[in-house]
Amino acid sequence: ASTKSPWNYHMRVIFLDCDGVLANSRSQNADPTGASPDPELFYDPLGQQRPLEKRCVQELARVVQYTGADGVVLTSMWRHYAPKRKFLVDVLEAHDIPVVGDTPGGAGRGAEVQAWFNSHPDQHEFVILDDQHAKIFENAGSG
Fold first, then answer.
1. Pfam families per the record (predicted)?
2. What is the pTM of this model?
3. In 10 A of CB 127, how many CB atoms?
4. How far apart are the C-alpha atoms of 100 and 16, rounded to whole Å?
5. How far is the C-alpha of 44 from the C-alpha of 71, rounded, in Å?
6. Nearest alpha-carbon partner for 23 in 81, 72, 91, 71
7. 20 and 48 Cβ atoms separated by less than 8 Å
8. Is 18 helix (H, G, I), strand (E, B) or coil?
9. What is the separation of C-alpha 138 from the centre of its chain, rounded to a whole number of angstroms?
10. What's the Cα-to-Cα distance from 103 to each of 48, 61, 112, 139, rounded to whole Å?
11. In angstroms, rounded to a whole number, what is the distance separating the alpha carbons of residues 56 and 65?
């Protein structure tokens, strides 16, 4: 049973990009098949997707737990490709990081985040983890 009251409840979400956040330079340089496995990476069992860095996933899990976030909303391009999305979701959920949704496709990340807010009108507390410049998110969540 949830201890969160439905009255005046603010959903806490983390808008999550993958490339540059969970899949960084270490994973970009790795062989996705895991032929020479790096123990610091999570590999796609099918050997098709870029590996994810364990340390980054573990830190994200710590942030989710510490902040009491309800989960992540995927903003990454990975959400558009079923095998990539499945690998990402499997790794996140294996680390107690719930995926609560995806932003819709659109005209850039900031607009996609704003569209998600528009379709989820309840009040939200949020943070955006993305390697893109903050200016693209200037108006996200503002209205």
1. HAD_SAK_2
2. 0.84
3. 12
4. 11
5. 22
6. 91
7. no
8. coil
9. 19
10. 24, 20, 6, 15
11. 14
- Kindly report the CA angle at 60 between 3 and 109, in degrees rounded to 5? 100
Residue pLDDT, tens place only, 4-43: 555 556 789 999 999 999 998 888 889 888 888 899 999 9
Q: Whole-angstrom Cα distance, residue 72 to residue 12?
A: 9
CB 26, CB 85: distance < 8 Å: no
Q: In which element (H, E) is residue 66 found?
A: helix 54-67
Amino acid at 22: L
**pLDDT, position 33:** 86
Give the amino acid at 67.
T
Q: Which residue has the higher pLDDT, 65 or 3?
A: 65
Question: Any idea which fold 11-137 has?
Answer: Rossmann fold (3.40.50)
Judge residue 69's burial from the number of C-beta atoms within 10 Å of its C-beta, 0-12 exposed, 13-18 middle, 19 or more buried. Answer: buried
Per domain, the residue ranges of the chain are 11-137
Distance CA 85, CA 80 (A): 7
Residue 85: is its pLDDT beyond 60?
Answer: yes
Q: Of 126, 122, 120, nearest to 70 (Cα)?
A: 126
Whether 79 shows a pLDDT value over 80: the answer reads yes
